[in-house]
Amino acid sequence: MSILFIVNPKAGNGKALKVSDKIQEKMKILKKDYEIAYTKGPEDAITIAREASNSFNKIVSVGGDGTLNEVVNGIAGSRSILGVIPAGTGNDFAKTIYPSLNIDDILKTIIDGEVKSIDIGKCNNKYFINIASAGIDAEIAHRVQRVKKLLPGKLAYLNTLLKTLVTYKGIDFNIKLDDVSFRANTLLITASNGKFYGGGMIPTPDADIKDGYFDVCHIKNLSKIKIIALLYKFLKGTHTQIKEVTIFKTKRLSIQANKNFIVNIDGETLETNEANFEINKEFINILLPRNK
Ligand SMILES: Nc1ncnc2c1ncn2[C@@H]1O[C@H](COP(=O)(O)OP(=O)(O)OP(=O)(O)O)[C@@H](O)[C@H]1O
């Protein structure tokens, strides 16, 4: 019953390193068989998780949503059990599965939690555990990554948010779900497995990681004033009654445009002119708190 902790030393501006000290302390006290691997750069967690998936019973991501996404892509298709220790800046997926982000409680789950099968999304060839999206949010996420090299984090985000808000003209998407197809000038569209993204926003309040479906939030492009009003509701998940917002449940989603657009997958971005999403029901075994 050995456990591998995959720690991203850069996650949460070094928070993951502190959490890793705590993990080691606890494991020694409990005399548990464990190992720790530190990632050396982007995508390293995929390789580490893939190579470890035959020899470790539990593989635990210690970092943010980006590290978790990589660990999921590494263990996909194996029998390893996934553990999630949030130690990033956003930790959006952890908010879906844990009632609180207290590290001591979460360590109890890693050692003695209940193993359950949950759904995993796939976008083109990449798996995701939480939320994928396209539209204004993905454009902002993509641009922030570039601006971050020039400005500090929060300033980079605010600067990009304002600039994108002013210039965004909507994207004309051809959208195909299980039962319906339509074309719409779109503010944003999500394929959600988890509930939270972007540091706690709630696009699909009823998303369920065990129901075998994506919850899709589609929002038609809006005037700038309406976007600002929507943002407040979107943060709390109370936007679903607005007339330009539609929520669907679907197993498949396809979005296509005449020009390239950005897709945000668990917080990482890629550029394409067609994104095909499918849900893989009960695809990964994960450790969840016993009362969940
Ligand atoms: N040693 C490393 N040096 C630099 N980057 C790394 C290293 N190891 C992993 N990474 C990359 O760091 C990125 C960010 O990690 P992660 O998303 O887990 O943390 P975060 O950004 O602090 O948290 P969150 O996504 O929850 O806001 C990932 O895309 C990952 O590929």
UniProtKB/TrEMBL annotation:
It comes from Caloramator australicus RC3. This is Transcription regulator [contains diacylglycerol kinase catalytic domain]. Its cofactor is Mg(2+). Residues 1-127 form the DAGKc domain. The keyword Ribosomal protein does not apply. InterPro entries: ATP-NAD_kinase_N, Diacylglycerol/lipid_kinase, Diacylglycerol_kinase_cat_dom, Lipid_Phosphate_FormReg, NAD/diacylglycerol_kinase_sf, YegS/DAGK_C. Belongs to the diacylglycerol/lipid kinase family. Pfam families: DAGK_cat, YegS_C.
